[in-house]
Amino acid sequence: MNFDFDTIINRRASESTKWRTFADDVLPMWVADMDFRAPEAVIAALQKKLDHGIFGYPSLPDGLTDTVLAWLSRRHGWEVEPE
Predict the structure, then answer these.
(1) What is the pLDDT of residues 4-61, one digit of tens each?
(2) pLDDT tens digits, residue range 10-26?
(3) Is the pLDDT of residue 1 over 80?
(4) Is the pTM value of this prediction over 0.85?
(5) CA 70, CA 77: separation in Å to the nearest integer?
């Protein structure tokens, strides 16, 4: 995959919180909001979902609940029931 990190995209006139929060002379380095186009593979995957036209709740991937519970236990010492 090739990515274009060199093309400058001016987002000041967009709905970007990053660029609209402070004056033009302030560089917004306080948020991880990227100023480059998403990779074509990501755009294509999103377009496929949009073309389907149904936006219900998907089922959770196998193992996600166990992964989250293990992380909560390791990170915070929380023992949470899966339900």
Answers:
(1) 889 889 998 888 999 999 998 999 998 888 888 888 999 999 999 999 999 999 899 9
(2) 998 888 999 999 998 99
(3) no
(4) no
(5) 9
CB distance 21 to 28 below 8 Å: yes
Domain boundaries, the chain: 17-76
What DSSP letter does each residue of the chain carry, written as one string?
Answer: -----SS----TTTT-HHHHSS-TTS---SS----SPPPHHHHHHHHHHHHH----PPPPPTTHHHHHHHHHHHHH-------
Place of tokens 């002379």: 25
Q: 55-70 burial by CB neighbour count: b if 16+ within 10 A, else e?
A: eeeeeeeeeeeeeeee
79 CB-contact burial (10 Å; exposed 0-12 / middle 13-18 / buried 19+): exposed
